[in-house]
Amino acid sequence: MPLQVPCPQCRQMTPFEGNPHRPFCSERCRRIDLGTWASGGYVIPGRSVEVEDDNVSDTADEEDSEDSE
Ligand SMILES: [Zn+2]
C-alpha cells in the first residue's frame, strides 16, 4: 500500500510518491496555499512611502516642462 499524506489545504488523503504537487493533492490546492501565504506576508503596515513619492513626481514635472519648450 502506497504512502498517503493528508493535503494541507483540503485534508484529502493523497499519495506521497509520484505526486508532483505534494504534499498537496493538486495544483489548485498548492496555489491556494501559496496565495494565502503571499497575501498575508506581502503587506507591510506602517511603511512611509509618501515622502519618496512626492520627491519623484517633483523631479518628473520639472523635466517635462523643459522638454515642452
Ligand atoms: Zn487538496
Could you characterize the architecture of this molecule?
The chain has about 70 residues and is mainly alpha-helical. It has one domain: 2-Layer Sandwich (Erythroid Transcription Factor GATA-1, Chain A), CATH 3.30.50. Helix content is about 50%, strand content about 10%. Strands 1-2 form a two-stranded antiparallel ribbon. β1 and β2 form a beta hairpin. The longest helix is centred in the last third of the chain and has 19 residues. The radius of gyration is 24 Å and the shape is rod-shaped. The model has no long low-confidence stretch (mean pLDDT about 75).
Summarize the structure.
By secondary structure, this protein is mostly helical. It is 51% helix and 9% strand.
- Going by CATH, the architecture would be 2-Layer Sandwich
Q: Rg from C-alpha positions?
A: 24 Å
Biggest pleated-sheet summary: 2 strands, antiparallel
Q: What's the mean pLDDT score?
A: 76
Morphology call: rod-shaped
Please describe the topology of this protein.
Blueprint (H helix, E strand, L loop, with lengths): L3 E3 L6 E3 L11 H16 L7 H19 L1
Antiparallel strand pairs: 1-2
Bound molecules: zinc ion.
Zinc ion (ZN) binds next to loops.
